[in-house]
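User: quick one, sequence for these C-alpha cells?
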C-alpha cells in the first residue's frame, strides 16, 4: 500500500476469493451506517460467516533463533484494542481508492478465530483524513464503499525481526489486500523518505492474466520496499511470485512472512524464500549513504492489515478498471506473529535464512 500518490508498481498484487463457508443460515448483519458518518446498505448481499481456518503449517524456521515477541491469534470475541488501532478515514490512501475505512463491526470483526476485514458497497460519509493528521485538515467526504483497516501504530513497533501472518485473500478485479509496515516516527522525513515495507500485496486475484502460470488467472502476490525522497521523488523495489497450490491457490490460506535484519530483507510465502533486497538497493535522500548505509530501514515500524477497494494499482492491472461484482468481499487473517532474534537482538542478521551457511 502507498501512503501518498506514487508511480504505479508493476508488481501483480492481490485479489482474493470471497470467503464463503459452512456457516449454515448464520450471516453477518448487513451494513447499517453509523460510525463517523452514515451509510445505507440497501439490498447489498451479505457475506456468509466464514468457518474457522483449517489446520496448516506455520512454516516457522525452527532452530533459527527467532523467538516470539508479539502475536495475535484472534481467539477472542472482539478486536483487542490493546494491540490494534482502527483507522477511520475516506481519503483513498492517495491511490484513488474507493472506500471509507470505518470502525464498525460491519467492516471489522473477530469471528471463528479470524480477523475479518469486510468491504461492502454502500454510501458512507466519514472524515476525509485519518485521525492524527496535523492541523485537523480535511472535512467530511462520501464514498460508495466501506472497508476495514487495522494497525499497531503507537501501540507496538519494532526494528528488525520476523513478521508473519496466515491469510486468505479475496478474488476479483479491483481487490487490493495488504499486510504491510510504516515507520513509527518518520525520522527521515515524509513518505517515502522514511520508508515503507510491503510484506504482502495481491491485486485482482482470479482476474484475466496473460503472464500468469496455470489456468486460474491472476494468482500472484508481491513484496516491495518504498524509499528515496519524499513524494514525488520516491522510489521502490518490488517483485511478484506465483502462489503455491496450483489452480486452487487463490482459494487457500497462505503464510506470508518477511525477515528483516540490518541491511537485508527476505520475503517468504509458505516457507519458501522468494525475494531478497540488500541495503545497496535502498536509501533515503535525507541521509548520506556513507554515514548511514541502512537508512531508512533502521528504525521502528508498525504493522497493518487492510482491504482497499479499487485504487490505481488494482485498476491499472489485469483486465483494467473496476468490477462492481467483486464486492462485497473480505480478507481473513488466521494469526499474525512477530519474532526477534535471540542470537543477535541488535541486527537480527544471525537468525536470517542463509546467514550462517
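Assistant:
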Amino acid at each position: 500500500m502507498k501512503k501518498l500518490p506514487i508511480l504505479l508498481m508493476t508488481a501483480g498484487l492481490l485479489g482474493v476469493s470471497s470467503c464463503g463457508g459452512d456457516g449454515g443460515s448464520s450471516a453477518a448483519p448487513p451494513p447499517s451506517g453509523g460510525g463517523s458518518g452514515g451509510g445505507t446498505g440497501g439490498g447489498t448481499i451479505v457475506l456468509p460467516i466464514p468457518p474457522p481456518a483449517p489446520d496448516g503449517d506455520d512454516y516457522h524456521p525452527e532452530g533459527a533463533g527467532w523467538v516470539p515477541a508479539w502475536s495475535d491469534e484472534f481467539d477472542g470475541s472482539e478486536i483487542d484494542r490493546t494491540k490494534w488501532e482502527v483507522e477511520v478515514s475516506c481519503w483513498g490512501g492517495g491511490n484513488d481508492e474507493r472506500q471509507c475505512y470505518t470502525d464498525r463491526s460491519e467492516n471489522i470483526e473477530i469471528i471463528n478465530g479470524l480477523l475479518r476485514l469486510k468491504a461492502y458497497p454502500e454510501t458512507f460519509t466519514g472524515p476525509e483524513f485519518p485521525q492524527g493528521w496535523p492541523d485537523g485538515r480535511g472535512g467530511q467526504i462520501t464514498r460508495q464503499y466501506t472497508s476495514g483497516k487495522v494497525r499497531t501504530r503507537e501501540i507496538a513497533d519494532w526494528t528488525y525481526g520476523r513478521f508473519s501472518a496466515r491469510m486468505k485473500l479475496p478474488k476479483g478485479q479491483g481487490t487490493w489486500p495488504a499486510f504491510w509496515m510504516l515507520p513509527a516516527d518518520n525520522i527521515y522525513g515524509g513518505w517515502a523518505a522514511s520508508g515503507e515495507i510491503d510484506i504482502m500485496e495481491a491485486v485482482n486475484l482470479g482476474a484475466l492474466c496473460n503472464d500468469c502460470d496455470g489456468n486460474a488467472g491472476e494468482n500472484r502476490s508481491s513484496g516491495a520496499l518504498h524509499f528515496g525522497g519524499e513524494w514525488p521523488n520516491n522510489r521502490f523495489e518490488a517483485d511478484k511470485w506465483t502462489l503455491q497450490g496450483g489452480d486452487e491457490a487463490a482459494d487457500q490460506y497462505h503464510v506470508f512472512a518477511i525477515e528483516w535484519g540490518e541491511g537485508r530483507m527476505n520475503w517468504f510465502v509458505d516457507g519458501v524464500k522468494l525475494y531478497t533486497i540488500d541495503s545497496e538497493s535502498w536509501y533515503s535522500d535525507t541521509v548520506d549513504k556513507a554515514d548511514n548505509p541502512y537508512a531508512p530501514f533502521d528504525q521502528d515500524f508498525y504493522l497493518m492489515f487492510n482491504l482497499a477497494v479499487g485504487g490505481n494499482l488494482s485498476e491499472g492491472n489485469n483486465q483494467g478498471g473496476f468490477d462492481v461484482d467483486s464486492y462485497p468481499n473480505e480478507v481473513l487473517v488466521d494469526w499474525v506473529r512477530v519474532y526477534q532474534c535471540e542470537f543477535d537482538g541488535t541486527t537480527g542478521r544471525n537468525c536470517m535464512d542463509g546467514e550462517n551457511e
